[in-house]
Design brief:
about 270 residues; about 25% helix; Glutaredoxin; Pdz3 Domain; five-stranded mixed beta sheet; seven-stranded antiparallel beta sheet
Length: about 270
């Protein structure tokens, strides 16, 4: 049965190979194509990627080795091993590099609202170091929230779903202030509109401003490399720095609170 299960995979690999003369590896729901500097991630027609990777990510190093020098059979082996354990890799996303632990997202945890992001992130995907300049609280870093959960709310003053759920985000921030810090990130910053938003909702949590192509939204998968972001989006970071949740879309009232608190209350 094991050999029979390989047939659809081989057919897919053959289809990719026709379009791409470079070596191609197809494992489960991901295709990677060999390039000069590593292996490039591609989406399959059958659906979105269920790994802590995005389309166009370039795998530069894997398990301490130069990915460009790693053959297709070995790469396939690494991805198959990813079912059982984390594989250390260094990837480039746009112009930014980051270390990750390659993991597949279990199907039952994969609940995408947008086309690319995933809802539950496998343990081992660490949040990048970042210093944010806020418009109401001065500069902040994730380091200052060490040992606390951090919720990042990516939104925009012009994005109706982002504004509509702000009261729920602020209520959650107040309710969980002892164990969680909340930071609002305004994309495509419009100073006057953001200031009016802060005053209207009496926002006391830090409000940072950045554009789509800033490192943080790209590294967390909120922005794609073709100059757009999928909003609203939430990223929940565990006290140890690992990402626990990336959630894109508005959802029903109370959904954000339910999902975030289920993570805060879970037992490791």
């Amino acid at each position: 049965m094991k050999y029979l299960s390989l047939l659809p995979m081989m057919a897919l690999a053959t289809q990719y190979a026709v379009a791409h003369p470079q070596p191609v590896v197809v494992v489960s729901n991901i295709a990677i194509i060999h390039e000069e500097h590593g292996w490039r991630v591609q989406e399959k027609k059958s659906g979105s990627i269920h790994w802590n990777l995005m389309k166009d990510d370039l795998i530069v190093r894997i398990e301490g080795k130069n990915a460009a020098d790693t053959g297709p059979m070995q790469m396939a082996s690494y991805f198959n091993e990813g079912y059982r354990r984390g594989i250390k890799a260094y990837i480039k996303r746009a112009d930014f590099g980051q270390e990750i632990e390659l993991r597949q997202i279990p199907t039952q945890d994969y609940s995408p609202v947008g086309a690319k992001p995933f809802a539950h992130v496998a343990k081992g995907f660490s949040a990048p170091d970042a210093e944010l300049e806020t418009v109401n609280n001065g500069p902040i870093t994730f380091e200052q929230y060490k040992d606390k959960w951090v919720l990042i709310d990516f939104g925009a003053s012009w994005c109706a779903p982002s504004v509509a759920r702000l009261p729920e985000i602020l209520s959650l921030a107040e309710k969980e202030k002892d164990r969680m810090a909340v930071v609002a990130v305004e994309m495509d910053y419009k100073p006057k509109a953001v200031q009016e938003l802060i005053e209207h909702f009496q926002i006391k949590i830090p409000v940072a401003a950045m554009n789509y192509m800033s490192p943080l939204p790209i590294q967390l998968g909120v922005s794609a490399v073709d100059y757009f972001a999928e909003l609203p989006a939430l990223v929940l970071i565990q006290p140890d720095g690992d990402v626990a949740l990336i959630m894109v879309g508005g959802g029903e009232p109370g959904y954000v609170t339910k999902v975030v608190e289920s993570n805060l209350n879970r037992k490791e």
